[in-house]
Amino acid sequence: MDPKNNNRRDFLKLTSLSGMGLVGAQFITGCANSEAQSTESEDSVVKLAQRKYNQSFNMCGYGAPAIPTVRIGFVGLGSRGPGAVKRMSYLEGVEIKALCDVRPEQAQAAKDLLKGTNHDPELYTDGEDAWKMMCQREDLDLIYIATPWSLHTPMAVYAMEQGKHAATEVPAATTLEECWQLVETSERTKKHCCILENCCYDFFELLTLNMARQGYFGEIFHGEGAYIHDILDAFGSRKRFNSWRLRQNMDRRGNLYPTHGLGPICQIMNVNRGDKMDYLTSTSTNDFMMAAKVKELAAEDESFAEFDGKEFRGNMNTSVVKTHQGKTIMIQHDVSSPRPYSRIHLISGTKGAARKWPLPGKIALGHEGWHSEEEMKKIEEQYTPEMVKLLGDMARKAGGHGGMDFLMDWRLIDCLRHGLPLDHDVYDAASWSAIFPLSEWSVNNRSAPIDFPDFTGGAWENNAPVDKSLKNGVSTGVVIS
After folding, report:
1. I want to staple 197 with a disulfide (CB 3.0 to 4.6 A). Which of 128, 175, 263, 400 is the partner?
2. pLDDT band for position 188 (50/70/90)?
3. Whole-angstrom Cα distance, residue 16 to residue 417?
4. Is the pTM of this model over 0.85?
5. Residue pair 209/264 in contact by the 8 Å Cβ criterion
């Protein structure tokens, strides 16, 4: 489906398929501030990592009061935001009420995507604090955040303080202080803070999650995830990144973007729900490419001169997490090397293993080798989860990284409409994002281990695993009109 095609014959209407104090108001910054730098000292990182926390309310397994029609305001309409606006317009039980961006033309372009629909959102473009005015509206239930990373936590916190649920692009936070602030605010307000980790809804990841739940791999003791994506040339595109992502790679060292590879592994291994991440070690190579690229850009465009001569994070970061149950997770990050794209997605258990990249995804039950194509078809027939069976074709048409973005958005709305617990709660948002500052600390301290915060305050021992089976009151109702 072409996102620019407003032919409503292709409009998808999907009905539900399931019946330590931290910084305060001064922390909330304007939309123009997109140059996030870590302000945490190494001592404060260690203290925040070792913090003993008494949970005030457990958001894991919590179903907030049902919202039959979810009224949404979007902030950030550059790269990711417009696609989310379009996808949400396909869903029943959704009303797109507001669109916000500091660039009026971006907000208007997103609104133009809604021509021919029943959505007529108000635009918020008057200055860098326009998003606050949007959040203060009484007729919004959810704030959907797709801005540069430095604004994710401030906006999510402010939204929850204003009585709204928050859904934020990844990473949800870039410092441990931000991670704790998300947790405390969500618990205090009883508002969800959902990390929009789309890779948890890619089809092979959902397949292996369902297989793991049914014991196919035995007890899983090791997982691997990554974000290996050569976007070196894109760092020179001010149109797409406005240099904020280049600046992040200059100011921060470690795994800056862990959640794509980590999220699906954590859900399969029941992290925060029966196990927890215990400590982390991290190692980075030197930079062999980014500084040279910046010098090349500066020679062609003087606006890049400020970056010339600066030091950048290394090409490859490798971080390893040990869990409380004695299991391991390896996460890699490389956005500047000429390598094929990969998120790895490897899980290894006592009975078998799975690995997604290099494509196609593969399953094995021993050292003899991966299953044949015919065997894989049988596995898919048996273990493809209900969500994919019912929505997979529609998701592919709706778009968004092959359909996983659509499944993510549908699932979020379905949970909010029916008062169900979210698949990704605030503890996932905090712990998956915490790899960023923790890996940075370890890299700066000769790969020394650092404790992993327990954002659940011990509740991980009894929290139930994520259930995406849709087994509770599933009803059909996918209509193309």
Report:
1. 263
2. very high
3. 8
4. yes
5. yes
